[in-house]
């Protein structure tokens, strides 16, 4: 079993509250718009990190992280990208991959809107953790944490933090 902390859209922001949650995770997953490698450097000191770059990320971040990250975690096929859309309205850049080889868990960021919803047509779970950074229109900073074990995604929890 692995405890996962899922975040996105840090936009160069990292703080002790985010890091405290990272310390409780076995892995941290970042769905793009990192903003500054100091964010991922801080997270990698605490736990293994899987990340993708987002549309605001510069060449340094794009050299460090891929556009799409597909991997297996505890029997769950995971696909992370930054701009992915959501069930019924997937981004054209990822739609073909999703329909040809649907993962069990599809994660994206970008919208700053927290969403967790099934795609019954593709038999996958879609997650967007919202935005945990302080840049953007969102009023509450959000992350997700959950467990992955023997092909199951369980114990999903929404983490909310006030914007300072």
Structural category: alpha/beta
Could you name the ranges where pLDDT drops below 50 across 5 or more consecutive residues?
none
Shape: globular
Strand order of the largest sheet: 3-2-1-11-12
- DSSP strand content: 35-45%
Tell me the distance between the termini: 34 Å
Number of helices: 4
The percent range for helix content is: 10-25%
Query: What is the typical, i.e. mean, pLDDT?
Result: 97
Rg estimate, integer Å: 14 Å
Brief digest:
It is built from four helices and twelve strands. The strands form three sheets. Strands 3-2-1-11-12 form a five-stranded mixed β-sheet, with helices on one face. The chain has a five-stranded mixed β-sheet with strand order 4-5-8-10-9, with no helix packed on it. A two-stranded antiparallel ribbon has the order 6-7. It is of the alpha/beta class and 164 residues long.
